[in-house]
Each structure stands twice: as C-alpha cells, then as structure tokens.
Amino acid sequence: MEAKLLSASSPPSFVVHVATKFSRPSFVLTSLTREFPVFKLQSVHASSNPIVSKTTKVRNSLIRQEDNIIFSLVERAQYCYNENTYDPEAFSMDGFHGSLVGRYTNSDEHPFFPDDLPDHVLPPSEYPQQKKEMMAIGNYISTAVCDTICLQALSKRIHYGKYVAECKYRASPYDYEAAIREQDRDRLMNLLMNLLTYPLVEESIKKRVEIKTMTYGQVVKDDVLKDDERDPVYRIKPSLVANIYGDWIMPLTKEVQVEYLLRRLDLDRLQGN
Ligand SMILES: O=C(O)C(=O)C[C@]1(C(=O)O)C=C[C@@H](O)C=C1
Q: What PROSITE patterns is this protein classified in (predicted)?
C-alpha cells in the first residue's frame, strides 16, 4: 500500500502514509511538493523500504540530469559570451521592450528571480520590420535560447533539492522538527549534510561530471580510422563543468533543501496534519 502510494507519478494531490515509530498520521501532498522522495541512508538498510527506494530514484534522477546539464553547457560553449544579448539598449526599437526568449509561464519552470521577470514577448506581427531586425541579430537569439536551456536544466536540478530534503525528512522527521520550529538554518544544514561523508560525495560527483564531460564534449576527429596521437579536443573544458557543480550547483541544491525544510511544517499545517 505504502509502496504503491509512494510510487505514484506526480498526481496533483495524493495521500502518503508515513510509518514511523510514533505512528504519525497520513498527510496529503499537493502540487506544492508534487512527487518527492526520502531517506537517511545511514539508518535504513532494507532497499525494500519505500523511503529508501524513493531516495534511490531521486538520486538516480540527479545523476541523469547531469547529462542534460553537460549537453546544454556544451551547446552553449559554441557561442561567445555575447553580453549584448542581455543589454536592453542593444536592440532598442520602438514597440518592443521584452526579453528575447519568453519562458517561465510553464508550471514546472522555476525562475530564479520571480519578482524580476521582464515581459516575455517577441515583437508582435504588427511590427514586421522589428521582427526582421530581430531575426538578423542571429547569434544573440541562439545564445539566449542556449542560456535558457542551460538555466532550465540547472533550475530543475537545483530545485530537486526539495525532493532530496523531503526524503531526508521522511526518514526521520523528529530529527528535523526542533530545528524547523526554531528556523535554525545552520542546524538544518548540519542535519541534512553528514559532514564526514559529504565532502567525499561531492568530490566523487565532481569527478563523475568531469569524466562525463570528457566523453560527451570530446570533438571526434574527422578520420576515425587513422591513428592520431594528438591530445583530445573538448568543446568545453571538463574541469570547468566540474567546478560549476562544486561552486554553484551543489551549494544551491543544499540551500534549496534548507529553504524547503524551513517551510516543511507549514505544509503539514496547511494540509491539516
Ligand atoms: O544527495 C544528497 O544527499 C544531497 O544532499 C544532494 C547533493 C547534490 O547536490 O548532489 C547535495 C549536496 C551534497 O554534498 C551531495 C549531494
């Protein structure tokens, strides 16, 4: 029963029974949390445990998402920085003040700065001249599209921290509750991250990302049958992608976990538990 409920795929709202030694009541997950996961690897051993298997699914998703992130960065690397793409003065034209790419109208896209979104309109057809000019800009639009794809992949991955945090919370809710009630960010971070093991986990994630980037981002030589002793050429520096993981992606995923848990009891309250 629990396993069945836990494996439900993203219904808008569904009931989950959480069995703990204190026998907590069931609660309803709304689209606020949508799917979710759970865990505490150190204290749960049986993989038949639905919490552990959900955790495994979430972690596997994080690993798969690495591929999207790497591919999107490899694509982006074919263009220059192209600062003009984001300079509102660079393309100023009467009647058009929007961004080059309209996004974040979809519920599964999370803007990083929701209060600061520009209008997302391309010049409407009443402005054929502007539209033509816009098309002539060429690389700037491609750059903006690539950036958008990168940001979507990054945002999805970073916000997956909600599911990671939900897994950790479900595995041992009582470990977290005092820190949540006190809104103690540092304590939550310490509870979420086992300081003994996480540095090693992070190193291994970075190494895996670097190796994947070497594989996906390597330029394949023209004549694959000819012996070629030259060093491989990469479309993006593999260590750069690994560092993006270490300096941005994992720290932000951790922040999302903390922010999610800080509101975790409100969620129960809203749902009457
Ligand atoms: O898997 C976890 O437990 C996480 O907290 C996720 C994650 C990650 O972003 O990949 C976050 C920080 C860690 O140090 C390692 C992993």
A: CHORISMATE_MUT_3
Nearest CA to ligand 1 atom 10: 250
What atom in ligand 1 is closest to the CA of residue 245? 9
State the ipTM, two decimals.
Answer: 0.97
Ligand 1 centroid, distance to 203 Cα (angstroms): 11
Q: Which residues form the pocket of ligand 1, taking CB atoms under 6 Å from any ligand atom?
A: 59, 62, 164, 193, 198, 201-202, 205, 250, 253-254
Mean pLDDT of 137-154: 88
Q: Which pairs count as long-range contacts for 4-8, CB under 8 Å and 24+ apart, including other chains?
A: 6/50, 6/51, 6/53, 6/54, 7/50, 7/54
Domains of the chain, each with CATH number or no CATH: 2-91+137-270 (1.10.590.10)
